[in-house]
Design goal:
The chain has 331 residues and is of the alpha/beta class. The chain contains 14 helices and seven strands. It has one domain: Alpha-Beta Barrel (TIM Barrel). Strands 1, 2, 3, 4, 5, 6 and 7 form a seven-stranded parallel β-sheet that branches. Helix 2 packs parallel to helix 12, helix 5 runs parallel beside helix 6 and helix 6 packs parallel to helix 9.
């Protein structure tokens, strides 16, 4: 927990909100007006050694407070060795159900697998269509997610939360079995993948047509937001009010970070980032995020980034502060 945070009277109200399962739902009594808290989560821990190194730097020299670890990542072993040296970094599981290989036998999770292969589907559009129409088996999701969470816990890492690669848990039929798997392994916090209605000022969106297109695409998915909140509350999970930064993935720079910092709404939010080094491992990996990862690392470690958040009165917290309890479950 961030030093001094628990002594804040406002944090007592926030803790009350967690205990009463109201996080992620509108509630006038949950937050003191004008209080803004921000979790800065670096995705893809365990993806490559260069990504791991960048996350370490973005945490130790910058503003990253949490990270999510890929149980099937090629650099998992490296991340597991690094994790104990970062006691203040809150670590979650980055559950992968697309664009990767399962830990389960492919024959046991056929609805998750691309036909004729042992890999997950690479197309998010195809995954979304199958998720919405109920063509992905709940038990297979639970089995695979449980295996990924268990692998990390068995490596001795206490997990504070979970999220998903490419935010696949925004679909209700994917979310429900994931929550069951997480709860069974002792996790009680999850990313809220839905952002505010207007994440940036209109001038920023209009100045960058690619952002406007991305924002319009994400806005279509807002129809699942209420179902997300209902499911999370029903299962007793803590979650932020929403997520910032998804619409700028791959394009984040100092100007956009500053615009986001100026637009953080009241409440508790998560900012998603992807720092990394564009080394030979990343060049060989299946990802569209290469040069952008180094740009994000530079932004996240700029003294000006921390100063801007402080100027706006934004408190940096982690998922460890949000989650009711960490876990030490073993198989």
């Amino acid at each position: 927990m961030i030093e001094g945070l628990s002594r804040e009277p406002r944090f007592v109200e926030y803790t009350w909100a967690i205990k009463n399962r109201s996080i992620g739902r509108p509630c006038v009594s949950c937050y003191t007006p004008s209080v803004r808290r921000l979790i800065i989560n670096a995705d893809d821990f365990g993806f490559t050694s260069g990504v791991n190194r960048a996350i370490v730097e973005a945490h130790s020299r910058g503003i990253v407070t949490s990270s999510t670890l890929m149980a099937c990542g090629p650099a998992l072993a490296d991340a597991v060795q690094i994790a104990p040296t970062l006691p203040r970094l809150s670590i979650g599981c980055h559950v992968v159900l697309i664009d990767g290989e399962p830990l389960s036998d492919a024959a046991k999770v056929p609805t998750l697998i691309s036909p004729g292969t042992s890999r997950f589907r690479d197309s998010l559009k195809s995954f979304a269509a199958r998720a919405i129409t109920g063509r992905i088996d709940d038990d297979e999701i639970t089995q695979e997610a449980s295996a990924q969470i268990r692998r990390i816990q068995d490596a001795g890492i206490s997990l504070s939360h979970f999220d998903t690669h490419k935010h696949t848990h925004l679909f209700p039929r994917i979310l429900r079995p994931l929550l069951r798997a997480a709860a069974a392994r002792g996790l009680r916090a999850v990313r809220n993948p839905f952002g505010p209605r207007l994440p940036l000022r209109s001038s920023e969106l209009l100045a960058r047509p690619n952002l406007w297109t991305r924002y319009a695409q994400l806005n279509v998915l807002q129809r699942f937001a209420s179902k997300f909140r209902e499911a999370v509350a029903r299962e007793g999970f803590a979650t932020p009010d929403g997520t910032l930064g998804i619409e700028v993935t791959g394009t984040l720079d100092e100007t956009l970070f500053d615009a986001i910092a100026l637009s953080v709404p009241e409440g508790t939010w998560e900012f998603v980032c992807h720092p990394g080094y564009n080394d030979s491992d990343l060049q060989a990996a299946r990802t569209r995020l290469r040069e952008s990862r180094e740009t994000e690392l530079r932004v996240l470690t700029l003294p000006a980034a921390r100063e801007r958040l402080a100027q706006q009165g934004i408190e940096l917290i982690s998922f460890r502060d949000l989650s009711p309890a960490s876990n030490q479950l073993k198989s």
